[in-house]
Write a structure and sequence with these properties.
By secondary structure, the chain is an all-beta fold. The strands form 4 sheets. It has a 4-stranded antiparallel beta sheet, with no helix packed on it. Strand 9 and strand 10 form a beta hairpin. The termini are far apart.
Length: 200
């Protein structure tokens, strides 16, 4: 009779608990330094200044004999748009200028005197402003300036929406000023308020 081999003992099977893969941490947007820009006539004429939130590091960015006012940060914090009556190659008068955050590379980007209230698009490539009673938009480089309202009424103080698709602005004189909104190309203008006057 052939010999029968004894049964082979098998090692006990140990179940290993699956370790879940940790979820990726949510990506936080970068935090940029929150310096403040403002205009002041502390040096006997209006200039653009920059300082830290605690008031330290005060710097005169424009340092020009003209009046420089209404500074606005670009969305990425690299440039500042502002209003100035400094003379340019055509003539004096209020125009929109853009400079780097350190005050260098100042460039005029509008061709309409009495230009005020600059406001950056969220992408930082366009700037809305009001001039001579109308709302304009222009590339941050100064190209493709377009009159969006071309209205006999007073249009002022444009603000581009956070999604960059619309512009809100004020229409009318001091006693009947109302809030309107339109597409970024000037189409589909519609009135939002009917009592007032509204102040920006």
């Amino acid at each position: 009779t052939p010999a029968v081999s004894p049964p082979t003992e098998r090692a006990p099977v140990t179940e290993t608990a699956e370790v879940p893969t940790p979820a990726a941490a949510p990506t936080q947007p970068p935090v940029f330094p929150c310096d403040i820009v403002f205009d002041s006539d502390r040096d006997a004429n209006l200039e653009i200044y920059r300082m830290a939130p605690d008031g330290s590091g005060l710097v005169n960015l424009t340092n020009h004999p003209a009046d420089d006012t209404e500074p606005v940060w670009s969305p990425d914090g690299t440039h500042i748009a502002f209003v100035s009556n400094r003379e340019n190659e055509s003539e004096g008068g209020l125009n929109i200028y853009v400079m780097r955050a350190d005050g260098s590379d100042v460039a005029r980007i509008t061709n309409q005197n009495d230009s005020r209230y600059p406001d950056w698009s969220p992408s930082g490539n366009r700037i809305a402003f009001s001039s001579q009673g109308d709302i304009f938009i222009v590339d941050a480089s100064g190209e493709h300036e377009t009159n969006l309202t071309n209205s006999p009424e007073e249009d002022s103080q444009p603000k581009i929406s956070p999604d960059g698709q619309q512009i809100a602005w004020l229409k009318g004189g001091e006693n009947n000023r109302q809030l309107f909104v339109m597409d970024l190309d000037g189409q589909n203008a519609r009135q939002l308020t009917f009592e007032g006057p509204i102040f920006g």
